[in-house]
Amino acid sequence: MDKTNQVELLEELLKVPLPDSYKDFLLNRGHALINGLPVLGLPLSPKPSSAWGATELIYTARPDLPEGLVAIRLLDHRALCLDLRNKELTRDAPLVEVDLDSEVEPVNVHESFQRYIQEGERIKSHINKSLKHLKSRIKSSSISQFDHVKGGGFPRAHHWRTLRSCVHDQVVGLTALRYKPEVSGLLIDVFLSSDHPDYEEGHGARALALLILADAYKCGGRMNLVFTKNVQGGKIPDELVKLALEYGITFESTSQDRVTHREAVELFAALVDLPQEIREVVNRHEGNGLTLEGLSFVVASGLWSAEEATWLLQNCPRVEKLFMGFDLPENRIHYLETLSYGRAALAVTRLLQRIINIQQKMLREDEVEPGFQMVTEGEFFLLSFDREYRLPWMDQQKAPLISPEKKLLILPRPRWNNGFVLQDLQADLGKLERYSGYACIKTLLYSSEVKFETPVQDNDAYMLQIPFPCRELDEEVGTRIQRARMVRI
User: Fold this and answer.
1) What's the confidence (pLDDT) of residue 150?
2) What's the CATH class of domain 3-111?
3) Cα–Cα distance between 293 and 287 in angstroms, integer?
4) How would CATH label the architecture of 125-144+154-271?
5) pLDDT tens, 106-116?
């Protein structure tokens, strides 16, 4: 059966007139890959690999759906459909996404099937051209001559280099770049990003932007980003402009070929989720060598989380030494002080993970992952969760059951036993008592090494003790300090 007869039969089987744009697609191509994902059509088959079989499947899974939907893609529990409910649309049709696991209404995702195909083809052409250019950069790079037996020279910062970012073994970003002193930053020759289907839209561009900004910082000097003619005709790529707008950052001119140092630093800090108010704190440390771009690199490298870094900036007296890795064990007094603050921040992260693990074990198969939020306020951490839990790391018969309406206020004080006196505990309780912010459960967090000679009774605060030796946290903090010395901070 030729394609013309198959199209006519498909209309009879589905009992809907197909729009001209989809008919042309079926007659000319039958089916295709657009943006790396299938668009279903011919040949006719009752299997889900054709438009007929896929449409039958969605109505079997969702008998509540209105008539006039034609499935052109199935992806896990989602289906992309032509929306033919408007009988007046004969030339083209919008696209909607249907959730096969719930009875939610179809969601509009594109206003035109024809433009969706055209945009996909333009993207495909751009990707093929960029990949061809990327291959030429790889061949010309010194890394292509590297011999794993004889050795050789890897490309330096001023040579063309190729980088990639991946999510679950799927490439979501590719770039070719080199450091150019004349522009005080990076010259970028390829900028390709895509999204993993299981993640939110735009995460590929975000991952690639983080990779480029971190590289710009490591190269030293300023962080200007200059794009060659091979990247959108020499303009800042649309994906990067859109990403910056999501964080309220507008580049000086999108017709220009560069992102300035100031804009790059602002975007770097935003992408690693550093709060706006912390930038004033960073400025106070700039004379000691700590900069906003340096702190952003610390967080992007995974040395410290944004919340840990924020708390340390507000509390640690020599935080630049901690982040730069300049404190050495030989300088015992300063090193122990640095360890104590790093230990305090890390202890709260461990407590947070413990609560999340408890909640995950209580989940049913059909429930989503528990949500949470961690913020800092002076010496305190504030944790909030979207479901109730019982406070761990204490006698469970006395542990409170905390509802989602209540925040958990934590004053971390993991000290060694030596040097700790009852007056320290009384001072810590006084700080909790004076806190007058959110309605919350107030807690003091101590190390397991602290021993209370006399029982402490306080109806307004709970005492938590880390259920493992402090040396475990000290070793982790020491490792992070050592890693910081191995990278440019």
Assistant:
1) 54
2) alpha beta
3) 14
4) 3-Layer(aba) Sandwich (3.40)
5) 999 999 999 99
